[in-house]
Amino acid sequence: MKKINQMKRNYFIMTAVPILMIFCIVGIALSGDTSDGEIVEHEELAVYSRFISKKTEGKAFLIVEAKIEAEELYGNDHEFLGNYYLIYVGEKWEDHRANWYWFHVREDLKEILWCEIVECEYYSLEEWRDSLQYREQMERITEYLEENE
Questions:
Q1: Residue 141, SS3?
Q2: N or C end of the chain: which has fewer CB within 10 A?
Q3: Which helix (H) or strand (E) holds 92?
C-alpha cells in the first residue's frame, strides 16, 4: 500500500505541478502585469476564444500552451537575452492547429516578448499591441463579433 501511495504522489508531482506552473506562467504573461505576479484574466484571450468558436461554428477552439522549462533566447541582433518560457497561442481543430502567436516570458516573469514568426524578430508586449498588425486584427475580430452576436 505504501508503494502505491508513493507512486500516486510521484504521478501527481509529475503531472499536476507542471500543469499548475503552466497556468501561472500563461496567466501572468498574458495579463501583461508582471509587477507583482498577480494573475489576471487576459481580455484578449477571451475575445479570441469567442471569435474562434463563433467563426468556426464550434469546430475549433483557442489553445494556449507553455513549455515548463525555460530555454535560452537570443534577440534580433543575436545577443543573449536570458532564459524564457515559450507560450503558444492558436486554434485547435480536430486534425490540425493554426498558429496565432508565440510569446516568450523571461524566467523571472518580468519581461514578455512577442515573436514575429515570419522574420523571427522579438518585440515587447507593448510594441506588439501598438503594431498595425495587432490593431487591424483586433478591429476585424471586434467587427465580426459585433455583426454575429
A1: helix
A2: N
A3: strand 80-92
CA 118 – CA 109 distance, rounded (Å):
25
How far, CA to CA in Å, does 5 sit from each of 2, 9, 10?
5, 6, 9
Q: In sequence order, what are the residues at sequence separation of 6 or more whose Cβ sits closer than 8 angstroms to the Cβ of residue 82? A: 72, 73, 106, 107, 111
Higher pLDDT, 41 or 64: 64
CA distances from 17 to 12, 70, 117 (A): 7, 16, 30
The pLDDT-based confidence of 66 (bands split at 50, 70, 90) is confident
Q: pTM of the predicted model, to two decimals?
A: 0.70
Residue type, 90: G
The grid coordinates of residue 10 equal: 510521484
